[in-house]
Design brief:
8-stranded parallel beta sheet, 21 strands, 408 residues, alpha/beta, Urease, subunit C, domain 1, TIM Barrel, disordered N terminus, 10 helices
Amino acid sequence: MAAKEPHYSAPAGARGTARPAPTDPQPADHGLVLSGARAVLPTGVVENARISVEGTRIAADAPENAQVIDLTGHWLLPGFVDIHNHGGGGASFSSGTAEEILTGVRTHRAHGTTTLVASTVTDDMDVLARQAGLLSELAEQGDVAGIHFEGPFISPCRKGAHSEALLRHPDPAEVRKLLDAARGHAKMVTLATELPGGIESVRLLAEHGVIAAVGHTDATYEQTVAAIDAGATVATHLYNAMPQIGHRAPGPITALLEDERVTVELINDGTHLHPAALQLAFHHAGPDRVAFITDAMDAAGSGDGRFLLGPLEVDVTDGVARLVDGGAIAGSTLTLDRALRRAVTVDRLPVEHAVAALSANPARLLGLYDRVGSLEPGKDADLLVLDADFTLKGVMRQGTWVVAPELA
């Protein structure tokens, strides 16, 4: 694919004010019935399913005079929930204006992600605090489900695509500064918990109902166990940016996989993980403790070219993002519909396990499972239509088609 003109996100000073997204078509008042599909429900795969939608929610019974859509030969799944996503469609959640951020959100919605947590990357603390204020406005409007701070409280030994000059120890006072800037919308903070202040910061996050995630860490097995005991409950992109498993030094991966309190993130794009590593995670953590994420940067949905990830330049070639300086993998260009298709067609995971990793598990982690993450009456009508080959054909969010299915 020919490279497009370089795209650079808006500079730190060019902040926008959050505003409502353009008006979308409203759900049909008379309701909708989706029939004939193979649906993935909490009880498993159900043949010839019948799902009713009324207004913005899934209904227990078909509304009177409801439109019926025949989905025979298709799959019907709950909308995807992405807890770790830095942008898409040429827009960065770390530095974009409100409209740019909404462009990124819409890009991922068109690929099935109906619930999205906006992730930031390492930057100056004041810059992060200002961006958190903007993202919190979008969270209040319902455009994003919250904020994830990935950095600056991470290890320089495992910095990945983060600026080393801007890294700092996880001082609880500075962690609290970001929480305050997020105005109650901080959902997760990734920390190298072995650094000074790490354990105290984990306790602070747990006390405030914010997920403490172990990631970009050089911790030992024992240090990771201590972090989990202090309240850490997520492994940020397991395997990546952390020591690998050794037979005398099992490291953080072993501790994170073996503890039932921890959900492990996996980037299933064929670049970040070998299929055997993915299978190992599912085998040891089990299908209820895995969350597929994109870790997407602004290049997701934009093709190849040159981009920015925070202050660092990134080249995207054949869909793989790497830092211009040093060549380290820099996030991904993944969308969750591709993660699902790879999981079931390449990794040969049971469909219900892959769907749980994309919907129910992250929804539970965020405390949103009463609203999203499964096809059940009373929940938001966030659902996806895929063909028999797991190619996405339709996306509905809160009862409105984001992508209307074109059925033969």
